[in-house]
Amino acid sequence: MSSSSTAPAAKPAMRDALVAAAFQLFLERGYEQTTVDDIVSLAGVGRRSFFRYFPSKEDVVFPDHEGCLADMTAFLAVSDPRHEPVRRVCDAARLVLRMYAENPTFSVQRYRLTKQVPGLRAYELSVVWRYERALADYLRGRFAGRRDGTLRADVIAAAVVAAHNNALRSWLRSDGEGDAGATVDHALRYVQEAFSTPAPDTGVGTDTDGTSAALFGGPTEHPDDVVVLVSRRDAPLWRVVQEIETAFGRA
Q1: Are both 245 and 161 inside the same structural domain?
Q2: Residue 186: inside a domain, yes or no?
Q3: Contact 95/68 with Cβ under 8 angstroms?
Q4: Which of 59, 107, 199, 227 has a CB 3.0–4.6 Å from the CB of 54, allowing a cystine?
Q5: What span, in angstroms and rounded, lies between the C-alpha atoms of 212 and 215?
Q6: pLDDT at 221 over 50
């Protein structure tokens, strides 16, 4: 078998070996006390091999984010105009969750390490910002030409990231116990309820599990009841939502 045919299989193995060696040393010695030379020595490779995969020591802590960001960008790029945009970006955020949930032990170790090292926390924030920008860019395209379309896109993207990360950190603080997907779904449902556009002519939204429910509060107890709300065109969205919730409460 030629060397070119074996190269693709060898690369991930070496990359994974570098990540494993790095985290072993981070846990034993601490992040600041571990050098790139220490990592390559334990992994049994040269410095050039390390920098072939990771531009810096910080990057070895987040080995999967570049691939995940590429997956998210590709997922949004193939979106259909029929996709409800807010639900679409929530589904894109779930790709990040899947990355964490695939290896809970590693994810928890990284979370603890990042909390301890300010430089890693700053690096992580820069990664989060790139995810948020990817979501916002997609939404800007979907809301192009609408009044406050750019503002709406940026606010929704920030809300999706905030909801996702709040639930993700809760799961990580529990040492990766429990159903991470259910925790994140619960958080993202708040974003969908606040910003999603109802399905045409139905006034009904679709939950992440594919079931239908009234946009605010689920199925009504009296399906024949009709609630009519009159609001100013320039009323802020939070006020309209508050009035709808109040109306349903009275109904």
Answers
A1: no
A2: yes
A3: yes
A4: 59
A5: 9
A6: no
| Mean predicted confidence (pLDDT) in 158-175 | 96
Closest by alpha carbon to 107, among 59, 56, 58, 169?
169
Residue 125 neighbours by CB distance under 10 Å: 10
| Token pair for 89 | 């970006």
Whether residue 75 is found in the same domain as residue 198: yes
Most confident of 134-143, 189-198, 202-211: 134-143
- Coil/strand/helix, residue 151: helix
Query: What pLDDT score was predicted for residue 229?
Result: 61
Whether the predicted pLDDT of 202 surpasses 90: no
What integer pLDDT is reported at residue 192 of this predicted model? 95
Please, are residues 155 and 143 in contact by the beta-carbon 8 Å criterion? Answer: no
Q: Side chain identity at 3, as an amino acid letter?
A: S
Model confidence at 27: pLDDT above 50? yes
Per-state percent for the chain, helix, strand, coil, to nearest 5:
70, 0, 30
Kindly state whether residue 16 falls inside one of the protein's structural domains: yes
The answer to whether residues 199 and 249 belong to one domain is no
| Residue 229 DSSP class | -
Tell me, yes or no, whether 86 and 135 share the same domain.
yes
127 within some domain: yes
Q: In this structure, are 169 and 207 located in the same domain? A: yes
- The larger pLDDT score, comparing residue 142 to residue 11, is at 142
Q: What pLDDT score was predicted for residue 226?
A: 55
**Are residue 150 and residue 226 in the same domain, yes or no?**
no
Q: Does the pLDDT at position 67 exceed 70?
A: yes
* Letter string b/e over residues 68-83, b meaning 16 or more CB atoms within 10 A of that residue's CB: bbebbbebbeebeeee
Beta bridge partners of 205: 213
| Structural domain boundaries, residue 232 | 222-251
Q: Looking at residue 201, what is its pLDDT?
A: 41
CA nearest to 18, candidates 179, 46, 222, 231? 46
